[in-house]
Amino acid sequence: MTKKLFIKTYGCQMNVYDSERMAEALGGQGYVETATPEDADMILLNTCHIREKAAEKVYSELGRLKPLKELNPELKIGVAGCVAQAEGEEIMRRQPAVDLVVGPQTYHRLPEMEARVRSGLPALDTDFPAEDKFDHLKGRPKARRAPAAFLTVQEGCDKFCAFCVVPYTRGAEVSRPAARVLEEARDLVERGVREVTLLGQNVNAYHGGMTLAGLIRELARIDGLERIRYTTSHPNDMGDDLIAAHAEVEELMPYLHLPVQSGSDRILKRMNRSHTAESYLQLIERIRVARPDIVLSGDFIVGFPEETDADFEATMELVRQVRYGYAFSFKYSSRPGTPAAERPGVDPDVADDRLQRLQALITEHQREIQDSMVGREMDVLVEKPGRNPGQMIGKSPYLHSVHIEGGTAAVGDIARVRILDAKTNSLGGVQV
Ligand code: SAH
Ligand code: SF4
Ligand code: F3S
């Protein structure tokens, strides 16, 4: 009998990838996915622990879902991902409607856990097992896929930035063997994928028998795989061979997410980032020499403990020098168990004000870069039909969303598009 599975995903792209894998793992148990929690027999929340708000959302969502159990006594509720890893059993104590808790490294055991909750027992698994979960996700359905897919190649982190929970929720840095990654990429291409984004918390530290640059060069040789991206990178792992790949590998897209967090050396040191603002700027310079049209994005934290006005101004200055095409900026959130959690925070109003100023500056640059695309022709990977008749939506090499009018392009095609207008978050154009 088919049962219905509803998965809600929070957090980063790795969670998106993991949710797909969990759906496949439970597919073997007769589950098909549903888009609505109301008709589900199993609900999984794949959670994020990175900031307090992200983690608290999970409990309010669980509170909303709980009444569904009265309508469907067969309904089981599970919490997966980084909150599951960080809080474990505590989740079931705080919300007794939860039947199952599974961490990011053990979801290949979901089929056994599902059987256990069906028999009325709770199931909890937040191990860091020696075996590779990906090796245990066999017999996946060969379903057709959307043209752009994520592919996890590296997980975990050994960097221990003073603010960050990832080394605790995802564990130590581990790379998947290159042969496995290539096998999965070939399988994706057979299923209709044209673009892969290689994922890792420190993806450029990849060392699965070759460097990330080596892996990218191997992937570029796969027929039908037209585009390669990777995220997230750490400035200290940006090797010369990876920079060279940006100059030489046509399939490697001209877009790089390279978080710096702050432009103040004093704060970077307290964050345990082990790079300076200057070394980051020099790195950006070298990358731009290799690939002059590259669009950069970054992550920033404002209001880190002891951040002064002068420290914040240094961040603004760094942003002015780099001119990001996109950037994500966050107010510092104190996370239990991290070294920075012990330190006194910045006044929340001051932090709010800094965040607004930083975001305004980033938006200004983003807008300028978007505007500079108008009049240019570029290749767009067509991903789905748009809202208007004949309109398609795709992605530019620089990761812009592009609305294509009046063309003949089908999903999965790479269309040549002349850009006619720019908004803050998307471009519009016609197929040529
Ligand atoms: N591995 C990536 C980022 C992982 S988390 C890297 O090293 O760049 C994604 C982003 O969340 C981080 O880059 C950081 O900007 C932000 N972040 C992490 N911990 C945070 C915290 N405690 N408070 C606010 N933002 C945080
Ligand atoms: Fe977190 Fe730093 Fe590791 Fe990135 S490098 S995941 S910010 S500890
Ligand atoms: Fe969040 Fe875990 Fe990703 S904490 S950002 S879901 S690695």
How do the helices and strands line up, and which of them pair or pack?
Layout: E1 3-9, H1 13-27, E2 31-33, E3 42-47, H2 52-65, H3 68-71, E4 76-80, H4 81-87, H5 90-94, E5 100-102, H6 110-118, E6 123-125, E7 148-152, E8 154-155, H7 166-169, E9 174-175, H8 178-190, E10 195-199, H9 212-220, E11 227-231, H10 240-248, E12 255-257, H11 265-270, H12 277-290, E13 295-302, H13 309-322, E14 326-331, H14 348-371, E15 377-385, E16 392-395, E17 401-405, E18 414-422, E19 426-431
Parallel strand pairs: 1-2, 1-3, 3-4, 4-5, 5-6, 7-10, 10-11, 12-13, 13-14, 17-19
Antiparallel strand pairs: 8-9, 15-16, 15-18, 16-17, 18-19
Helix pairs in contact: 9-10, 13-14
The site of FE3-S4 cluster has 13 residues, from α1, α4 and α7.
Mind explaining what this structure looks like?
One of its GO terms (molecular function) is tRNA-2-methylthio-N(6)-dimethylallyladenosine(37) synthase activity. Keywords: 4Fe-4S, Cytoplasm, Iron, Iron-sulfur, Metal-binding, S-adenosyl-L-methionine, Transferase, tRNA processing. Monomer. InterPro entries: Elp3/MiaA/NifB-like_rSAM, Methylthiotransferase, Methylthiotransferase_CS, Methylthiotransferase_N, Methylthiotransferase_N_sf, MiaB_methiolase, rSAM, rSAM_horseshoe. With about 425 residues, this protein is of the alpha/beta class. It has three domains: about 5-125, Methylthiotransferase, N-terminal domain (Rossmann fold, 3-Layer(aba) Sandwich), CATH 3.40.50; about 140-370, tm_1862 like domain (pyruvate-formate lyase- activating enzyme); about 375-430, OB fold (Dihydrolipoamide Acetyltransferase, E2P) (Beta Barrel), CATH 2.40.50.140. Helices cover about 35% and strands about 20% of the residues. It has helices at about 15-25, 50-65, 70, 80-85, 90-95, 110-120, 165-170, 180-190, 210-220, 240-250, 265-270, 275-290, 310-320, 350-370, and strands at about 5-10, 30-35, 40-45, 75-80, 100, 125, 150, 155, 175, 195-200, 225-230, 255, 295-300, 325-330, 375-385, 390-395, 400-405, 415-420, 425-430. A six-stranded parallel β-sheet has the order 2-1-3-4-5-6, with helices on both faces. Strands 15-16-17-19-18 form a five-stranded mixed β-barrel. A hairpin with a 5-residue loop joins strand 16 and strand 17. Helix 13 (about 310-320) packs parallel to helix 14. It binds S-adenosyl-L-homocysteine, iron/sulfur cluster and FE3-S4 cluster. FE3-S4 cluster binds near residues 48, 50, 82 and 165.
